[in-house]
Design brief:
Elements: E1 5-8, E2 11-18, H1 28-32, E3 38-49, H2 51-66, E4 70-74, H3 78-90, H4 104-141, H5 148-159, H6 163-187, H7 194-232, H8 235-241, H9 246-285, H10 289-299, H11 302-329, H12 334-365
């Protein structure tokens, strides 16, 4: 094996050819121990070097510089110097990250800071809800001050225009639910019970929940982005300066629009998801539409439909309130609009699911 280098008096004499094969077994650490204050890289006897060889010397120079050892290249051929210059522009040393020792004190500090942040958000949200109800009761006492046209505008944009995606989602949920149930029920010859399963689960739980999640994804993000832009452009500050209430003009119409529209959306979602179940029952289990509806009337009590519809305005209230709150939290940067819009959607979906689970437990315990 040819000798690739010699080290004398803190000078590294580079010999022969340095390519990907010759440098594969060389280690930077073996070179580092020979140099204390300086390192002269003498390339006078270098015959050839490729990018792998150049990368090795760049890494060596990086480690030397890191330890405060001065390095210098001498007698480097022009064509090799050009290669060094080219590689040096794009070279980036990949350093292994040292594992930080586990610090239990820092863990408690971080938990404390996180808890304080969450308490701050909770405090601001409680104040927000209090101001919302204060403004709402003022509107209730003086109905002529209620912004009815804005209320109708938000019903159209936040709810009615969301109906196509709600209908499509509810139809798919009904089809999937019925299809999976059909396969299981057919094994026991209990085909007709698909009506009970689809009817109760769709009207009581799935249709309201799916409709609320779709509205949370579509309208909550829209509300937060709208209010966030109004805040960045100082439109809200200008309204407050002129004496117009933010809650009266911006928050109340939006939240009430969702509260009023959600039962309609859930009713449509109920109908469509059951229709999806009817199609699957007819195709897979030979249960025609008339037979399906007759069994639906016998098996699905009115209370299941009412429970689903009662939950709808509460979901709408939660979605509207969280979306508007997050919109007012937006800072004066365009980046924060994206951040708080994401938080708005995630928070709205989480609390819709959480309240649905809470309703389910309470109503089951009550025997309803």
């Amino acid at each position: 094996m040819k000798t690739l280098f010699q080290i004398q008096n803190q000078t590294l004499f580079v010999l022969e050819s340095w390519d990907k094969n010759s440098v594969a077994d060389l280690k930077i650490a073996d070179f580092m121990k020979h140099f204390q204050t300086q390192c002269i890289l003498d390339f006078h006897h270098l015959q050839f070097i490729d990018m792998a060889g150049v990368r090795f010397f760049l890494a060596l120079e990086y480690e030397l510089q890191k330890k405060g050892i001065v390095s210098q290249r001498v007698h480097l051929d022009e064509k090799f110097d050009a290669l060094f210059e080219l590689c040096g522009k794009n070279y980036q040393r990949i350093v292994k990250r040292e594992k930080k020792p586990f610090n239990i004190a820092k863990l408690f500090v971080d938990l404390g800071a996180l808890s304080l942040d969450l308490l701050g958000i909770l405090k601001r949200f409680i104040c927000f809800v209090g101001e919302f109800f204060a403004t709402f009761f003022k509107c209730f006492k003086k109905p002529q001050t209620f912004r009815f046209i804005a209320f109708l505008y938000h019903i159209e944009n936040s709810a009615l225009k969301a109906l196509p995606i709600v209908i499509l989602t509810a139809l798919l949920v009904g089809v999937v639910l019925a299809y999976q149930a059909a396969f299981q029920l057919a094994q026991f010859g209990a085909n007709i019970f698909i009506v009970d399963l689809v009817g109760i689960s769709a009207t009581r739980e799935l249709a309201p929940l799916i409709a609320a999640i779709v509205i949370a994804g579509r309208s909550a993000s829209s509300y937060t982005a709208q209010i966030g832009v109004m805040k960045i452009t100082d439109e809200i500050a200008a309204m407050n300066t002129m004496g117009f209430s933010t809650f009266h003009f911006i928050i109340i119409p939006r939240v009430l629009a969702l509260v009023v529209a959600m039962p309609l959306i859930v009713a449509v979602s109920d109908f469509v998801s059951i229709f999806g179940g009817m199609i699957v029952a007819h195709l897979n289990l030979d249960i025609n539409f008339i037979e399906f509806l007759r069994r639906f009337k016998e098996a699905v009590e009115l209370k299941h439909i009412i429970i689903g519809l009662v939950k709808a305005p509460i979901f709408g209230f939660l979605i509207g309130l969280i979306a508007c709150f997050r919109g007012l939290e937006v800072k004066h940067t365009t980046q924060s609009i994206g951040i708080y819009t994401t938080k708005s959607v995630v928070n709205a979906i989480f609390w819709v699911i959480a309240f649905d689970a809470l309703f389910s437990v309470i109503l089951t315990q009550m025997g309803v």
